[in-house]
Structures are given as structure tokens and as C-alpha cells.
Amino acid sequence: YTCAAGSNLVGTSTTTCTAGTLAWVPPTGPQCVPDCPTFPPANANSNIATTPTAPFTTGNTVVYSCNTGFTPLGSLTLTCQNTGVWSPTTAPTCRKVCSAPPGLSSGTGQFAPVKTEYEVNEEVTYSCTGVLNVRGVNKNKCKADGTWEYTTGPSCEAVCYAAPTITNGDYTPKNTYTNALGSVTYTCNAGSVPTTPQTVTCQSATLTWSPTPSCRKSCAAPPAVTNAGTGSASTWAEGDVITYACAPTTSYKIVAATSGNNAPHQNECLSTGLWKYTTPADLPTCVAICSTAPTTTTGTTTITPAAGPYDLNTNAVYTCTSPSPSNPLGDTTLTCTGPNTWTPATAPTCVSACINVPQIAANGNQITGTQWTGGQTVTYSCTSAAYALTTPTINTCTASTLTWTSATAPSCLQKCTTALPSAPSNGNNVLDTTKNPVPGENVEGTRYTYTCAATYALAIGSSTENTCTGGAWPNAAPSCVPACTNPPAGTVGSPTPSPNNALNPQGTSVTYTCGSGTTLVGTATITCQATRAWLPATAPECITDCTAPPSIPSNGAANTPAAGPYTIGLSITYACAANFRLVGSTTNTCQRVGTATAGTWSAAAPTCAPSDKDLDIVMILDGNDPLDGCSSKTPAVTPPILPGGSLTGSAFPNFFLQQSLAAAIESGWGTVAQANTRIGYHMHAGVCTSATNQNQLPIKQLSSTASTLTLFTSLAYPCATPNNPIKAIQCAETYHFIANHGDRPTISNVVILVMHNTQSYTAAERATFLTEITAIRASLKGTLMIVSILPSVDSNYAANEAYIRMLLGCPAAGVCLNFLGSAATSSTVLSKLRLAAATLP
């Protein structure tokens, strides 16, 4: 085998076919693998020691070598692989190294690590033996040029390193090393003070510094508390605590801060240079006290409280105990008004005498002296003859108790200088013995009362008494007038009179009231007359209020007022819930019937029925002859026929009946108003042949707000020739069911046709009408409903109903909603109209 250029053969180049086995030996052929490219050139500080010749085949090697002083990084030999690449793929790198570092310059110690060669940037660290410290740099580094950063090593000596630094201070001298037993001195910055010691020493045994001081923030003098001290210190620093103490303690006591922040009465200097408590609320106070109370110099006393100290503004109360009996001279109550200061300043003395003689308040003599022995007396008198003396006139000091026989002095009262007004006619004035200060004299406070003879009483507004005041009688004599006895008692419900006196002077008014749950009926106030009779002569009555009013069974709103009391004469108003209408009276009144003792309601409760549907209704009234024989009556009554004239229930009963039916529908149907149901009226009279004729027939447009009764006051009933009712329906629809005349497109339209006796038409006419109305009934603008003018008891009513059912498309029997019945029974018409309306859209 041979390989192409650029590759070399790996394996046996020859294979042989063996005769016995007919197999190749070796059984597989060699491989042709690519040659390696030119080997990498040598890097800096290196050379190629052994170089193969090209081509470079598998297994060839290249050997590199480093220059002197350099060490290889990686393999120095590259080998050509059978893949055609060198391994390793790059030439080795030769780097510089350091030999052993310099040793210690003096002293004993070592460096680490210890090696024969050191890589670039590798460091060694020096240390000393024993307590010695390294002086100089304790580290050395191998540089890129193979030399050490420091050419000489440090020394091991008996020195301390630089002294420690402190907060808010510094030291001198500033040396990197200090020999054993050397020292430095610390000082603090402004605003700080040092702790001791301020000088520290390099200790020879350990070559470390002795303990250093610290600099604490200083505080100014602490906040002052009046009459309190803080100790003997003159400077204060961070952490110092002072305690306030009042001085002297016999005159002041300390009271804790009102804020409660400083209960122990202390303060602390903070690291900020400020005191912890500075506001008055956070500081204690020194309040004045009195340590002891003054002692009594004559006699003995007990003091309450018995012992001090006494707080400011508190009292010490003295009581004499000897001699017995005795009285205190001087104030018995002393008040602590300042530090050890009492007001009054001296205690009372105890004497065996009466003291404090009662004195006349005014216009009398004043007794002089301070002490009176037992049995000694004093005499009172007035200073002017215009005054009279009350009792007692003499006061005696009682020996056994040393008290005055009268604890109060008499009074000097001014005499009345005017005459007492005379007694009234039919009466007397009587001295009030309980108001007679000086018997036999009319003086200040002497009182006379006035009385009247039987059947008389003091006039209203008269004074009932006269009292001497300021030396005169203030009131004129009263009058005695005829009097009524007690006011009459009520006979029903016990009304209460006020006032209710046995005698009541002429003109007295008495007002009666009734208790809860009753109403006063009659005159509430009566008056006493000069004849001694009451007017009115009888009392009113108290009639029991009505019970709760009858309620609407269902769908009703609250009564107004909803709650009692329901007094006689009170009316309540009923209302229905939304979408319901009220049937019956809207009001009910609590009333008294005859002589009943309790009120009753005037009516039963109404009911609430579903609200009527809003409709646009056109009602066609019949005005054709021979209805009521109008043509035969016109010679006597010239048309138009007016209500109040000949249009009465007796003269024109069917015309009048239609008017009544129209009014009943308008008043009985829910709400007839422009916003709800609208009603228009039209006459079925003659033929609707033209626009002119059409416009003459309407009575009321849907848009009109006039009432039915107002309209019929001036309504003319034309007495026309009977004609086709179908034409009347078409005429009414054409006129009324347009927007200009009030028709509303969203509201259902209804046409109510009032028909007279259909039997008055011929059979042929009835057949024609039926055919025509059947043809147009579905196209009418409004739902057609018919009312018969005949009463239900009329012999032709059944035949009329049968024909009307055919006109309306109803079955001969059963329900026919749009046939509303007889005009004679308006309530039935309304009921059937509601049933029919309920089916409309």
C-alpha cells in the first residue's frame, strides 16, 4: 500500500494471500493519515532543542528548551498525532522565577512559605519569635524580573506598633513604632472630655499598649429646677446621670414630672451633648411645704392633721383641750401659704371665758371686749327710736359651758310709719302671729292676711297679705267679691278642672282637660259670674278616642296620619299602592254619634282595585228620532234641547240616561286626564256625509280638558232622522283618531257606541248593517264596544243583545267582552269595560 502526498501510512504496507486459508494476512489494510503542519515556533525566552525533518508524520516529536533563569510552563515536547495535529497544540512558555527572599535584618524570626523558587507576584510573610514585633514591612513580593520587591528584610525588635485611635480625640507623638516602655498622650476634641488615664505605655512584657482612654461628648449645665440642686459636679459628659433634690427639705418637697417621663427625678447627658429631659413637663418641681404647725402658747390644743409636713394651701385646725372648759382666742384655722409660712402666723390661745359675743347686724349698739367670764351679761339696744328691738335684749355667758345663752344677736327692725290699710268690705285683716317679730309693734316683716266672709272671695289680682317693708305697707286693701263654689264635675269621662278650688271669685276661669286616649267635647273653659253661677253651667265631656281606623284589606298605602291618637273630629286619608285605584271614600272621620261615650269611624275602609288601563275613548251618543219621541216634543221645546230646561229624566229619559252614563264613566274610570285616559264625545245623529257635517257632530275632542258636566250644560241634542250607525262610527273615527285632535299612537283606541232599540230597524236594514260592520270591523282604528240604551228588563233587550253580539262578532251565548250591557246600569258598564280593556294591547 502507498499513501498520497500530504499523508502517511500507518500499519503494514504489505498484505499476503495465504494458500491454505485463502485469507489475507494481516486481514485489514493500513490507514493513510494526514501529515502534521509545521510545528509552532519557540516563544520568548525559549529555543527548539530537537527539530524533525518534513514531512511531519505520526509519532514525530519537537523538543523545546528554556533560556537560563527561566522555567517552562507546560510540556517541552510536542508530538504529531495520527489526526494530523500537534499535541500539545502550542509551544511552551518560559517564565522568570525568584530565588529565596532576603532574611531578617536583625532579631530572630522567619518567613513563609519557604521554597526554592517563587512565582512572579508570589508573597512571603515575615514573623518574629516570642513577643517581638516586626519592624518594617512584614511582606515581600516576587517581581516580574525575578527579583524581590524589598532587597532587605525587616527586623524583629522590642517595639509597639502605632497607638490605637479613639473617637472624638487623638494622641501625640505620632510614631509608627514606639520602643518598649515608651508612651503617648491622648487629648479630646472640643466639646468632649477624656476618661482616665490620658497617657498610655508600650508594655515591655507583651509589646502591646496599656488601656486607652475614651472621649465622651460633654453637656452644658443641666436644666435648672427652682429650689433644687443636682450635686457637686461642675462638668458633665455622655452617660452622666444627675439627680434633682429640693433644698432645704424642711421647706420644699420634690414632685415628679407631670409627663411621667422622669419619675426618679433624674436627668442624663446624651451622646448628642444634650440632656435627655429639657421641657418643664419632663422635669420635677419643688413645691413649698410647712414642716410643722405653730404651737399654742396658752393652754393646750389638738391640731388636725396632727403632724406635718403640710402641703401648700392646706389647713391646720386647732381645738382647745385645756383648761376645760375653754375657748380659743385667735383663728383656729391656719393655712400653709409658703415655705414654712403660716397665715395667720400664730396659733390661737385657750382661755376660760366666753368669746365672740353675737353682735346686732345694723342699727344697734356694738358690744366691745374680747373675753367675758362666766355669769357676765351684755345688753342690746337700738340706736334710733325708728327701730324696735327683737328678743333677746340681754345675753349671758354661761359659766359651765362658756357659751352665750343666745347664739344669735337680736335685730333692730324699722317701724312702719304708715297706717295699716283698713279691712275690705265683707272681709277682715288678721295679724299673722308667725310673722310678728316685735309683739305690739308693726315693724319690718310684720304681716297681716286678708279673709272674706262666707260666699265671698278675694277678687282676682288682689293681694292676700300685707307685710311691712321699708317702713310702709306695700299693698292696698283688697276687695271681697261674690264667689262660686267648686266647678261642676264632668258626667262623661271625668274631665279634670284647673284650678279646682272650693271658692272661686267672680271672673275666675276654670279650664278642663281630658286624659290620654280621650278627646274633650264641649266648652273647655267656664267662668264664674257675679251671680255665683258658672257659665257654661255644665262641664265638658271626655269622649274616648277612636280605635285604629279600618284598614284597606290589600294593596293599600299607609293611612295619613298613620298613628294615633285618633281624636274626635280627626280625619284620615287613604291611598292605594302604585298601579291600584281607590274604590270608596278617600277619607274617614273619627266622630261621636249622639250621646256615645266613645268615638267611631264614619265609614268602612275603601278597597284598592287594579288601576284602569290608559285609553283613548270616543263615546258615540244616540240623538236620533224616535228616541224619547224627540220629534213629537220639539214643537213645545225648540231644539237644541238643553239640560235644566226640558232635558230632564222625566221629559227625555234616554237622552238624560246617556248623559249620566258618560259622567259615570268619566268619574269611575281610573284617572281621566291628558296623561292617562282621554274621552271624546260624538253624536250619532243623521248621516255623516261631509266634512262640514262631520265637524258639527263632535261634542268634545280627545285633547279637550273640559269636564263632562260642563260640556252637557250647553249641549244641543239634534233630533235627527235615524240612519246607518256604521256611518256614525266611521265619521267619529275619521274625526277623533288623529293627532291634531288628541289621539296618541301608543295608547289603545276604543269606540263605545250607544244603540237605541235595534228592533226599530227593518230586517233588511239590520242585515245591511251587519254585513257592512262585519266588513270594516277588523280595519277600525279603535276597538268597537256597544252599550244598549234599553234596560235589561225591557222586552226587546234579549233581541237587542243577540243582534249586538252579531255586530261585534261574538258567539250567540257565552262571553262577549265588547258588549257592555245596558246604559241603565253604569256600574255594570264600567265593570265590563275593565274586563274588555284588560285584553287590549
TrEMBL record:
Pfam families listed in its UniProt record: Sushi
Domain Sushi residue range list: 34-96, 97-158, 217-288, 352-414, 482-542, 544-610
Alphabetized InterPro entries for the sequence: Compl-Cell_Adhes-Reg, Ig-like_dom, Sushi/SCR/CCP_sf, Sushi_SCR_CCP_dom
Positions of disulphide bridges: 354-397
Keyword Cell cycle: no
Keywords for the protein's UniProt record, in alphabetical order: Disulfide bond, Glycoprotein, Repeat, Sushi
Keyword Glycoprotein: yes
Span of domain Ig-like: 358-469
Protein name in the entry: Uncharacterized protein
